[in-house]
Amino acid sequence: MLGLMQPHALMISSILTHAARHHGSAEVVSRTHENTTHRYTWRDVEARSRRLVRVLQKLGVGAGDRVGTLAWNGYRHLEVYYAAPGMQAICHTINPRLHPDDIAYIINHADEKVLFVDVSFAPLVTAIAPKISVKTIVMMTDPEHMPDVSLAPGMTLASYDQLMDAADDDYAWPMFDESTASALCYTSGTTGRPKGVLYSHRSTWLHAYAVSLPDVLCCRATSRVLPVVPMFHVNAWGIPYATALTGGALVLPGRHLDGASMAAILNEERVTLTCGVPTVWLGLLQHLRATGERLHTVERIMTGGSAAPPLLIDAFRDEYGVRVEHGWGMTELSPVGTYNAPKVAQVGLPNPDATRHMLKQGRILPGIDMKIVDGDGKELPWDGVAFGDLKVRGPWIAGAYYGDEPGSALDKDGWFATGDVATIDPDGFMEITDRSKDVIKSGGEWISSITLENIAVSHPDVAEAAVIAAIHPKWDERPLLLVVPRPGRTVDKASVLAIYEGKVAKWWLPDDVVVLPELPHTATGKLLKTSLRSQFRDHYQKA
């Protein structure tokens, strides 16, 4: 017997119409490329998104077509977020930090119908134009600020504002199957060509609900949320949908994410919650300490993408009264899978214990599940000691990559292998100990590179650290520590190794320290360990 509830499909457009109807005066604020501040409301976003649908229709976009974006966090980009899926097309955000060859590959693989581009990426479009098949390029600006762009024969160039001025908003959002594709994001391609993850209206709705919960982002109508994480990176962790769903104010920072710019916009716009990767928060911390500036309204920082060093958690809590909270996820998870919000047992922990606990990536969001398994696929206990391969499943987790057979990314029981190695403690808090490809296996035992990196960056002379597995003639692999000095500092190897005393087993200690001027990073800001392994894997062989 079926239930007798109304069969309304979960449409992304209904998130926006809810915001417009019930939170119509709530602000959406953007820093623009012209260094101005643009302000309007959720009611305006909804009306202009309907207008943009008319633009897309005139450009030949129909159901199922891919609408690409190369853009920072701004109001025009937000309108594409809602207009494309609302008309049953697909919003495809493209990471401009990838290699141009990968960007061209992604555009062609997705078979874009039209490409929306921020003016700062005009040189990039000129460079890749001969390699891509898309025919229409829309620069996200007004006619007066149109940049010089050299396109390939057969391509056309248009101004976003000019197209919008010529369109009307006489459009009614349609209803269709909630499993219809809504957005497309590609992985960063560190282990081969980028792979596409295709979200649905239903998965996006459920993810937005989950990240808005009190023990996750706790989005409210009174919240003022600034996603530092780019809208081209896994839909800005779902924040453009969560803020509309709950009616909070959305603050979009544009392209300038340095410490001074971040401090200014966080204070000027009275931001209460902000979300991004640790490198951004380290830059903000450095600026605050150097200038004596304070954060007047920020209550919480969500950090993810890579492990946050303990000093980041301690400094923001003890010096500025701001909580730094870990989240974890990946493109294939829409992206948020866990969040580190306390249970009763963690409330009131003394600061050292609280910091140690906050280094964990957190507990699973309601609606999805996780487990850790050994090399034979046997589930391991949640004792905080055993660590194994992390697997997840649920309604906003990918079952296959774009272009592949449905279910092809899952095991026989429907679990998705994340590629992370993790532990789970008795309270259900998961901690990433490594990527499966980065874990160090020394003499048959595993060593966590992430743990060693977090300890290294607590040294006052170390700005950044990476630990890789280097081939060893006796132990198969041994950890090698690669560090970047802080500006004006010199790294003493013995001093760095000394800080590990009492923190890890002696056999975990790196056998050597290499000082470098900089470390390579992926397009999403993560350490590019494939490059480091290629360069230093034989370090102990040469010694």
Describe this structure in words.
With about 550 residues, this protein is an alpha/beta fold. It has a domain at about 440-540: ANL, C-terminal domain (GMP Synthetase, Chain A, domain 3, 2-Layer Sandwich), CATH 3.30.300.30. It is built from 16 helices and 25 strands. The strands form 5 sheets. Strands 2-1-11-10-12-13-14-15-16 form a 9-stranded mixed sheet, with helices on both faces. Strands 7-6-5-3-4-8-9 form a 7-stranded mixed sheet, with helices on both faces. It has a 4-stranded antiparallel sheet with strand order 17-18-19-20. A hairpin with a 6-residue loop joins strand 14 (about 325-330) and strand 15 (about 335-340). Helix 1 (about 10-20) packs across helix 8, helix 2 (about 40-60) packs across helix 3 and helix 7 crosses helix 8 (about 240-245). The termini are far apart. The model has no long low-confidence stretch (mean pLDDT about 95).
The percent of residues in helical segments reads 25-40%
Strand content: 15-25%
Q: Going by CATH, what is the homologous superfamily of the domain at 438-542?
A: ANL, C-terminal domain
Q: Can you count the beta strands?
A: 25
Summarize the biggest pleated sheet: 9 strands, mixed
Output the structural class: alpha/beta
The third-level CATH topology of the domain at 438-542 is GMP Synthetase, Chain A, domain 3
The spatial strand order of the largest sheet comes to 2-1-11-10-12-13-14-15-16
Q: What is Rg?
A: 24 Å
Distance between the termini: 72 Å
Discrete helix count? 16
What general outline do the C-alpha atoms trace? Answer: globular
Oligomer: single chain
Spans where pLDDT lies below 50 across 5 or more residues:
none
- The first-level CATH class of the domain at 438-542 is given as Alpha Beta
CATH arch. level architecture of the domain at 438-542: 2-Layer Sandwich
Task: Report the mean per-residue pLDDT as an integer.
Answer: 94
